[in-house]
Amino acid sequence: xxxxxxxxAWPDLGITVTAELDGRNPxxxxxxxxxLPYRSLQGHALVAGSHLYHVAPIHELLHxxxxxxxxxxxxxxxxxxxxxxxQHLGIKYGELTEPMPAAPIGRIRESDLxxxxxxxxxIWDAVYSTKKQILVEVREAGTSGGHRxxxxxxxxxxxxxxxxxxxxxxxRIWLAEPVELADLxxxxxxxxxxxxxxxxxxxxxxxxxxxPLGYASYGGLVRAAAGDMPLDSLRQMARLLxxxxxxxxxxCGLEKLWAFTQRFLDCLDRLDRDEFQALASQLALYINCxxxxxxxxFPWDAADELRQAGRPV
Length: 313
Description:
This protein is of the alpha+beta class. The protein has helices spanning about 25-35, 115-130, 155-175, 180-185, 200-225, 230-240, 245-250, 255-265, 275-295; strands at about 5-10, 15-20, 40, 45, 50-55, 80-85, 90-95, 105-110, 135-140.
């Protein structure tokens, strides 16, 4: 069987690397292969070390279980490519500090590792300080690029309208910063959230609520639906998990997210299992996209002088 190869390109940096899918986790690898080509905002790990990741527009990543895991991704060779249930495609390019199990699908070619290192350093600078928006394109090797966000459907009219609206909004913000998040990071907060006119605490709380809402709450609901949790239990868990953080985020400026959440909760009792999973999946992708932008826009260098004791700068 011929080896499937990907090109991972950062056009703004003039860097392209080639990854070979090596047969590990074939189900996961297939979800990626079938989604190509796509583009996304490139991110960088903020607490784990030399690791690149971006949100991939692949609904199946939320519930596709890996058949093989590395117990500690710190031990993986540089250039290892991973997929995760957080809808991330990740690439290790140097030392990692976080001991975490991970699902590998392939490797960057040895000859491309210097280019990968150069890209990693430039992307770190962009995420941490300059805020330059660097896009990544993932495509089958030797093909032209492109992009699409998959749109799920439902037979219930209200649910299908919500799916359409969430999909449209996700397309709008996928490659361009969300206006509401950009305004928030500039200090424009219509509700006045932020005690005594502060901004940084509000940014911190928005980041702290958005990531688990997408990764754990909606991602968890998708996995529970795919794993045959009873439908009544799914509805109850949705009501317990998503309303409070979404309402808070709406107060902080993410009003569309709160409006979508209210519509989701309003139609819960009419949804069958497939419709529930479709809505939770579409909302997870949207919120994970918001989370990616928030991580990029956040002023991480605001306390640049605060460094770990005993570690070199």
